[in-house]
Amino acid sequence: MLFLFRLILISVFTYLLALFTPWWSAIGCSALIAFFLPGNNFNAFLSGFMGVGLIWMVMAWKVNVETESIMSLKMIDLFPIDDVNMLIILTAIIGGFAGALGAFSGNSFRQIFIKKKEKSFYN
């Protein structure tokens, strides 16, 4: 349940921040949300990857539709990609890794401040 809540928060805040701030604000957004909503490192990584990746894919698709693929076709000329859909998927993967590393960093930073219980002789 916390995973879904973290995923939705990362997606919503990434979208809202992307309207006014640079692309790297998704990293800070993922880090802050993973810092305040604790979980294990894999959960944080996955929620950051899916949250930012899905938003970046939707935004890339939206730009592709609004410009009638003119911008996407010019980008394909620059990169060794043959299809517009592959460009959108590649954009989602790059954004997903950026968000995932941000969320992983935020969760790991939180774990620095948590005291670990000492193992008892009787456990």
Can you tell me about this structure?
The chain is mostly helical and 123 residues long. The chain has one domain. The protein has five helices and no strands. It has helices at residues 2-18, 25-36, 41-66, 70-78, 84-112. The chain is elongated and about 65 Å long.
- Counting DSSP H or I runs of 4 or more residues, the number of helices is 5
State the low-pLDDT regions, or none.
none
Round the Cα radius of gyration to an integer and report it: 18 Å
* Beta strand count: 0
Order of helices and strands: HHHHH
Q: Could you tell me the mean pLDDT?
A: 92
Portion of residues within helices? over 70%
Q: Which sheet architecture does the biggest sheet show?
A: none
Choose one word for the global shape: elongated
Distance between the termini: 30 Å
Tell me the fraction of residues in β-strands, as a range. Answer: under 5%
Task: Give the class from helix and strand content and strand pairing.
Answer: mainly alpha
Task: Compute the number of structural domains.
Answer: 1
SSE layout and pairing:
Elements: H1 2-18, H2 25-36, H3 41-66, H4 70-78, H5 84-112
Comma- or semicolon-separated keywords:
mainly alpha, 5 helices, 123 residues, elongated
In short:
Helix content is 76%, strand content 0%. With 123 residues, it is mostly helical.
